[in-house]
Specification:
The structure is a homodimer of 117-residue chains.
Chain A (H helix, E strand, L loop, with lengths): L3 E5 L5 E3 L1 H4 L5 E7 L9 E3 L2 E10 L1 E5 L2 E5 L3 E5 L5 E5 L5 E9 L11 E3 L1
Antiparallel strand pairs in A: 2-3, 3-10, 5-8, 5-10, 6-7, 6-9
């Protein structure tokens, strides 16, 4: 395995990094929705947890029956079976990262998985 | 399992989200290094892949023997055994996200793991 891979992500509507970077433990996507736009479907997952990070702008996430407001710096973990749909606010677009990982897949991390030199 | 958890991350030097959000498939940290500062040790991992996302600023990552420049929008996957050390540039700080996941843990994703409504 190459010791690292690198790309630069701009302002494209959606950039999926799994194949671009050769990721093996996550899919990571960058998403930009213009004002008034939303993901055109509701979805959930069979096995994967998602972590959403709001980079800029405003919007809402409908998570099952609840509407959650989204602002810069918000980070939301969504359990696999939660039905979700993201949209930008009517007046301002939103930029967010979505991290998709297999639920319960991380056992040891940080100090417990690290080797310090 | 609660269907979602949410926090807001500000400009703290380091924020670790695993325990705050109850993540089960990743550790996600937000990191801010001021100009001239660097992580004070070199490290690698036993089992975990890391994905670094540069949010703002400039810096460098030393990955094994190679020095890689870091700019806004750069995303780097680092293989577990790669020795790594991040630093801000001398004139400008850097803000980045680090995602830690178990290498080879994600099999099905996006359309293959999703349920669409």
């Amino acid at each position: 395995m190459k010791n690292y891979t690198k790309v630069n992500v701009g302002n494209e509507p959606r950039t999926e990094l799994h194949d671009l970077l050769g990721l093996t433990g996550a899919e990571v996507s960058f998403n930009n929705l213009p004002a008034g736009a939303g993901v055109p479907f509701v979805h959930s997952h069979k096995n994967n947890e998602e972590i959403y990070i709001v980079l800029e702008g405003k919007g809402t996430a409908t998570l099952d029956e609840e509407v959650v407001t989204l602002n810069k710096g918000d980070v939301i973990k969504v359990a696999p079976t939660t039905k979700r749909q993201f949209k930008a606010s009517d007046k301002e677009g939103i930029s967010y990262i979505c991290i998709q990982v297999k639920a319960d897949s991380l056992k040891e991390y940080t100090a417990n998985d690290a080797v310090i030199y």
